[in-house]
Specification:
single chain, 184 residues, mainly alpha, 80% helix, 0% strand
Amino acid sequence: MVVAIVLLVSNLATLAATEPETFQGQTFFRTLATYAASFIVISFYWAVFTTLLGLVKDLDDIVFYLSLIFLLLVTLIPVGNVAGQQLKSGRSLLFISLIEISTGLLLLLIFFYVTKGKIPQSNVAKRTMIELCVFPSVYTVTLFVSFLNFTIAQLLTFSVIPVFVIVRIKVRRIYPTDDINPQI
């Protein structure tokens, strides 16, 4: 995750400093918004990923390699967001959507591999599984909407943050932390 944050800062700092002699407020604020959105999404992925790793009893090679692929995909999030901010094209939106969908589906794959295809009865596992579905769901909708209206699809990418927070609050009310042993 540290690598993803470093890449995030590096990419966005380069974008913000394209013309260091002149301050461009619009570029600065777009860069700041892109940075904040990327940081928040990476933080949410990290929170869900660490919860998922807490459910792992034995770390085998498959979980290890899938986790490495997950981390690679996470490092592409700021790159995709910068591309989207600079290019504002269907291809850049497709790129970031595919990254987000792939990352979320990979986490779901890890979850179901670890749980051997069953959703455990622990509240932590149920919350984690539901939270894992938010990112790929929102970006799948965004991808389909992009074929109809590109502007609305761009706005939907920012909806992932409030949607995740709302889902997280609702799910924690339904499945409170009352598990004595959150292990699977």
